[in-house]
Amino acid sequence: MADLQLVELTVDNLPAALGLPPQANDVEPVSPVAWSVAEAYVNPTAWPRVVLDGDDVVGFVMANWNPAEEVPEFRAGIWRLNVAREARRRGVGRFAVEQVAEEARRRGLDRITVLWVPGPDGPEEFYLRCGFRKTGSVVFDQVAGELLLG
Ligand SMILES: CC(C)(COP(=O)(O)OP(=O)(O)OC[C@H]1O[C@@H](n2cnc3c(N)ncnc32)[C@H](O)[C@@H]1OP(=O)(O)O)[C@@H](O)C(=O)NCCC(=O)NCCS
């Protein structure tokens, strides 16, 4: 995918973002985009973004930037990542991670974190391939990972 871009949520791209998986009755290790957008509405430090391939919405990522968060893993890093099924394994998720890492660098940070659902149906291998390593912590039954930013 040569033409990926990270953009803000807009009136125009919101419907397609809401159509990303999971939809009702889907089983996926991530919340629906509608939940994330609702959380972002009430959480001023949330950073929701859409991944476009040309004009097509192919992903959604939400980070959070709040050093005062009670849970350390929620202070700087990825809260949510949803990639369209037909766009998977083509670099969209990695692009979203890189964009969040870039934003973290702009903010003067040297690491980002993420929590993932353990097990074969979770995104562990994806995050490890993107450079995350397990911190050894388990938070809300999820594996904590960190990516150190060089
Ligand atoms: C997990 C997810 C975000 C990955 O996105 P993606 O766009 O398919 O990932 P990429 O194409 O950028 O893959 C990057 C690397 O991870 C690997 N990878 C991706 N998904 C993988 C999987 N399910 N199992 C093993 N490896 C995987 C790719 O092969 C690639 O490896 P490489 O370094 O050899 O090139 C996507 O499958 C998804 O939305 N899953 C459901 C929701 C989810 O789990 N979100 C994360 C919540 S924290």
UniProtKB/TrEMBL annotation:
N-acetyltransferase domain: residues covered: 4-150
EC primary class: transferase
EC number assigned by the record: 2.3.-.-
CDD domains from the UniProt entry: NAT_SF
PROSITE patterns to which the protein is assigned, alphabetical: GNAT
InterPro entries, alphabetized: Acyl_CoA_acyltransferase, GNAT_dom
Superkingdom of the source species: Bacteria
The keyword tRNA-binding appears for this protein: no
Keywords assigned by UniProt, alphabetized: Acyltransferase, Transferase
Gene3D superfamilies according to UniProt: 3.40.630.30
An example molecular function term from Gene Ontology annotations: acyltransferase activity
Protein's name in the database: GNAT family N-acetyltransferase
